[in-house]
Design brief:
Structural class: mainly alpha
Low-confidence stretches: 204-213
Strand content: under 5%
Number of helices: 11
Number of strands: 0
Shape: globular
Helix content: 55-70%
């Protein structure tokens, strides 16, 4: 395939994804359908933003502007899913929004909200949660350097609550479930992340001691 033809096909693919931008049939679609469609779209865009040439196409065809828009962000932030937040946080980490971000929230603040909200949603394990977990942990680690110490303390608490919830559910299912090994692997991943965040966690006993001093 010639370089020109290959470029034409890739340009066509980018434009073929354009109906996902401000879709016209949102009012006639169920909320669940809109959320799941957004997740599929963000999965594709997240993969494409890992390539610099694709980032140029996505910027040209309006995908970057849509990904940083308040409309999409608000929908993803309040959805019941975890993966859509993971994908959007990863996209916002990789793209350059200069000149295209007209939303009231800085991109860094959006990433924080998406990561933290994803962990809030991660208290009950199911197939989607187990699938999302490695990507969630990865995107959390990628964003840590951009979070303030206060945000890291909040995140440590949220991850710890998720960890304790998963441990409790793990004890409840016992050894009889076929996915026990996957759950144990997931618990190990969460524990590893919490171990990194634990130095930032607030310890109630220490706080009480300091307040009495």
């Amino acid at each position: 395939m010639s370089q020109g033809l290959g470029s034409t096909l890739l340009d066509g693919l980018s434009r073929a994804l354009s109906p996902f931008i401000l879709p016209n049939d949102v009012q006639n679609s169920s909320p669940r359908f809109v959320i799941e469609r957004n997740c599929c779209y963000l999965r594709i865009i997240s993969a494409l933003t890992k390539n610099d040439e694709w980032c140029k196409r996505l910027t040209r065809d309006g995908h970057v502007e849509w990904c940083i828009s308040s409309s999409l962000y608000d929908t993803v932030l309040t959805s019941f899913m975890v993966l859509d937040k993971v994908f959007l946080a990863g996209i916002l980490l990789r793209i350059n929004p200069s000149g295209t971000d007209s939303s009231p929230y800085p991109v860094q603040e959006k990433r924080w909200m998406l990561v933290n909200r994803a962990w809030v949603r991660c208290h009950y394990f199911d197939k989607e949660m187990i699938e999302a977990l490695p990507a969630l942990v990865a995107v959390t680690r990628q964003n840590l350097l951009d979070f303030t110490r206060a945000k890291l303390a909040d995140l440590a608490s949220t991850v710890h609550r998720a960890l304790e919830s998963w441990k409790g559910q793990r004890e409840w299912i016992g050894q009889g479930q076929a996915n026990v090994l996957r759950i144990d692997a997931a618990l190990s991943i969460i524990q590893g992340l919490y171990d990194e965040l634990s130095p930032y966690a607030e310890h109630p006993s220490a706080s009480q001691h300091n307040s009495r001093s």
